[in-house]
Task: structure prediction
Amino acid sequence: MSTKDRASNGAQDPKGRVTKAVGGITISNRDLQTKSTTDQVKAGMKGAVENLEDAGYTVKDTVTP
Result:
């Protein structure tokens, strides 16, 4: 994964946390809370995929002479 992708994905989790806080402050705005949870889950999944891709490249580099 490129550094740009990692930075973009890394920014998504804090964005979700801020949105969740704002949703809680604005008298239980369920739409904001749902969107924040979605942002956090998406960021986590993207991070997991990036780690899996990196592991795949490491294995490929180890096996390929």
Notes: Helices lie at 3-25, 30-63. The first helix runs from residue 3 to 25.
